[in-house]
Request: fold
Amino acid sequence: QVQLVESGGGLVQAGGSLGLSCAASGGTFRTSTMAWFRMAPGKEREFVGGITWSGSRTSTADSVKGRFTISRDNTKNTMYLQMNSLKPEDTAVYYCAAVRYPIDRIPSGRYEYGFWGQGTQVTVSS
Reply:
């Protein structure tokens, strides 16, 4: 079992930056594709971006491409989400997730991820 804990959420003005972290314990973090999802009020949970186990490949949703960057440090069992040029529509609860089994791709569907953090709130004011 992989336990995931997000941190770094908060309130920021539009145009600002914020960084999130996802600390993992247990399981096989180093061999897991991981991802960030978000869920805004009244909307479904959506894929923000993901990263392969080695960190050699990332994928980001079109809505955040060029503004958000995903990285990981396997020596610290931590994944990161750097968010720049934030917009009010980025307001959501952000979740990190990990797949159950090693794969060499980055699924965008939430049902392919078996482990989830509790989420951290990001609020962008206009």
About this structure: The mean pLDDT is 94.
